Fold this protein.
Amino acid sequence: MQDKETPLTLTCLICGKTLTAEICIDSRITETDTLPEEYNDTDFLPLEAIEMTSYGHYGTTFFDPCDDGTQVAALICDNCMESRSERLLYIDKQRRLKPFDATMKELDEKARADRAAYEATTTCLPPQEIPRDEDGYPDVEYVDRIVRRLIDPSDDESRSQSE
Ligand SMILES: [Zn+2]
């Protein structure tokens, strides 16, 4: 049981560097060491690190609680991920295992080629700069207008004004 006086120390599995993390519940950052019951990939946010979890599985003798819902977790800092990326695997949407570095390079080249092809064929203007509030967040009224337009394209104030 975690002693409330000494906060849980988070460290990189590889280099042992102390890490910090935020826990986000209902879109709010909270001070807690308990994650929400409903699994959400955005609730635990280690800063400049990746959280890797496992429920255990057949084949390991290290951690296999037989699907009782408990997990082992490791945090690995971005530097350690980067410097060992040749050892990583990438799993694509079809669940195929691939070498991480080669796949990232391939995806990056494809994205560049797609962008170049798009830029060569499009004549549209660059996307409009999103207005920001004094804290740097997107302007609420602007976002609200965009969302309303997405939900109902006929609800376009500029269009209704010009008609
Ligand atoms: Zn590290």
The pocket of zinc ion is lined by residues 12, 14-15, 17, 77, 79-80 (CB under 6 Å). Strands lie at 10-11, 18-19, 21-25, 28-30, 44-46, 49-54, 72-77, 89-91, 97-99. Helices lie at 78-83, 100-121, 140-151, 157-162. The longest helix spans residues 100-121.
